[in-house]
Design goal:
The complex is a heterodimer of chains A (433) and B (474). By secondary structure, chain A is an alpha/beta fold. Chain A contains 18 helices and 10 strands. In chain A, β1, α3 and β2 form a beta-alpha-beta unit. The two termini of chain A are 37 Å apart. Chain B has 2 domains: 207 residues, no CATH class; 200 residues, ATPase, nucleotide binding domain (Nucleotidyltransferase, domain 5, 2-Layer Sandwich), CATH 3.30.420. In chain B, α3 runs antiparallel to α4, α3 packs across α8 and α14 crosses α15. The chains are: A alpha/beta (433), B alpha/beta (474). At the A-B interface, α17, β10 and α18 of A face α10 and β7 of B.
Amino acid sequence: MADIKDAIKEKSMVIQKDMLADLFKELGNTKETGKKVVYTFVPGNLTELILSFDMLPVYPEINALQSGMRKKSAEYIREAEKLGFSEDVCTYVKCDIGMMLKGNIGPTGETLPPPDLLLLSYTGCFTFMKWFENLERLYPGVPVAMLHTPYQEDGKITPEQLEYMVKQLKEEVIPKMEQVSGKAFDMDRLSKMMVNSAKAEDLLVKILESAKHKPSPIDAYFAGVYYIGPIFTAFRGTDAAVEYYTELYHEVQERIRLGLGPITPEGEMKEEKFRLVVEGPPNWTNFREFWKIFYDMGAVIVASSYTKVGGVYDLGFRHDPDEPLESLAKYCMGCYTNMNLPQRVNLLADYVKEYKADGFLINSIKSCNSFSAGQLMIMREIEHRSGVPVGFIESDLVDPRYFSYANIKNRLESYFQMLGQRKVILSQEGVEV
Amino acid sequence: MNKYYLGVDLGSTTSKAVIINEQDEIIGRGITNTRANYSVAADIARDEAVYNARFSILKKKLEAEIAANPHYKKYINDLESVFQYEQFKVRLDKLGEELLKTCRSFFKDEETQEFYINHLRSIRRSFKPVIKHDYLYNDLGAKNQFFRDIVSEKYNEEVNKLGSELFEPLMTVWDKSISPAENIRVLFDFKELIHKAMDELKVKYKNLPDTTNDETSVNFDAEMNLLKGNFDHVSESLREHIDEIATIEFNISNMTGTGYGRALLPFPEDCIRSEILCHAFGAHAIFPETRTVLDIGGQDTKAIQVDKYGLVTSFQMNDRCAAGCGRYLGYIADEMSISLNELGPMAMKAEKEVNICSTCTVFAGAELRELTNLGERREDILAGLHKAIIMRAMSLIARSGGVFNEFTFTGGVARNPAVIKYLSQLVLENYGSSIKINIHTDSIFMGALGGAMFARRNMKADLPSAKKEKIDMN
């Protein structure tokens, strides 16, 4: 990806870069190839289904975060605000709309094709619905398929919810896709892709769980966002994704064998001083600076909720070739932001325990309601249950106006000193940490 | 040899230094305004703490004599105040040089230069005796007022008397001179200055009136009365001790820098600590039952939760908005053209609290004018403003988890009586009467104190308070 171009590269990173380059090239050639383009979202995405119709997915959130990393988001957000979007609107939305208004140039410099279908399969965030209402106005006449995913209000997926989801897939989503692509739905093809999905998912879980080792061979947040890239986006269900995760898995295994710490943009992290669990998305506009504060202090993120927005695979869910539609439905309902708050607390408290974390940190995002709601409660609960020091910082997804390096650094420094001091004193007191 | 430990808290508004001994007792405090050159601010705070420590040691040495002769105490306190005046004089000379320099470079022709230089001289002649009098008779040295504030107030007064056409050039000369003057570190010879101060005191006591009446501005009390006929004897019997403390070598064994400017302090990297930890550590050391600390500083407010060891378990800070920090009060004081120290007492005279909706410092200024236009009393508006600050602090405290057990309030704002009033009221309303609220007279020094205590423990944090502490609030 653009932001780590000067960084030390493992083979898996090169593979991922090529995968993305090929995708954007293909997206740039749709006029010639006639391939249809589906705009859709990451949490609860129906990638295998889209690919089974030979259509190409575009993820506006990913474009927005890439724009943030490429320092384009300020301009795009300004453009959207000129149009009347308020300061408080989700900055992914404004960045995406601003990008479209400025010619829809994608992260690789190629122009992105307009959507042939807006597939609104949103989970846990109602802004997605408003986002696509706006895109519909930007692209008048574009067909919209909506998949309404019920929230796990009671902390479980009921048979009725499953039935409701599958019904929508059969009666709303698939017919729209057939209409747009001009192809008939092929259940066998979808099922075969799911064999690949499950393989990649198994590998991803092993990769993320490698952080249970001390020292952790990976950073499950800052590097984690790269690791989830292919499976959360256009490649789930493909051979390429399986190849990527196989390679990454071997690299991580090798790091464990050698007792190595995570790779950072400035090389290997030498000493693991603090192990953290992080809740909330990262900031993208100053991603490298943000990450650097952590690795300079010897802090490694061993688990994060953000790397579960496109699927909480470590809880056991896999796409199932034997029930493709049902598993798509379960997948959508099981994404992190579709879980209720007690479920999230349980998950995070388990992470702190299982990954032997020294602390729990929240990066609260100014413009993200779906993540920010309940975060203070989550923090209190984790502190109460696990007894680890908790930290709270604030930034934004892609609006650089809300990233205050000095403030964040000051807080994180204090937080790391808290953790350090605690280790010293508790060990003197004979308390196990 | 006695060992001492230094903590320097370089805050956004004030820089504080504390020296402690091996028993964690504060023996020296120094404070100054933070300025462009952080290093100078830290040096001044530290120098002041060292001077203050010399006086503390003197008082400690003479504890028995002081107890037996109360006028000794009076003499030493007076001496410390006049000693501050002696420092003030040296700084005023440096400022004078800067003002002349500015005049010569700012005004092109010699005639204009002379014209303004003469004005500057007469301004200085008018205010210098007033300030001297304040130091000698009104205890100005003990009021924690900074050189910049003292001089600029008087300079302003004098310039205002001169008429509008001179106002702008003289204020420009001032603006161009005060910063360079302030950013020079002046090295004082303690012994020389203390002798000068003793001479000054002689004159003061000699000129004391024999009897007092209501017209006398002198704070005439029993101790002073004893000194009146006796000062020569007192000063001579103390001279030897004073000379001794003037030459004590202060062996600073370790130090810690904290506060916003900590990274800029000329300290080794491992001697730099976060102010959050230092404030909590200082507050917890003084009040070991503390579990919640609120620090209202100049440009931030921190709500901190600590455990039985004084370890921070979580904290919340405001960094989006200044409403709710000390600077908010400073801004309001400027808007009302009154001094910061007058705000709290004035708010205490309120009959009601006017509701201030503004959450923004700048807009609160506008709201204040608007409310004045509507006929609200100043006292009532001020009461509302003080309450508004505490309401914001309460929201920060809630975010950090609430108030537990003992609640310790630190920071410069903790000296403001109206702040204390509303804080106590709102803590009571929100968390009940079982919460004990601690406010220490040294609350502004709590970060520097925590720093010094970290320094004494050489960062290894061997906490005596943790050993004493038996109650586990978790």
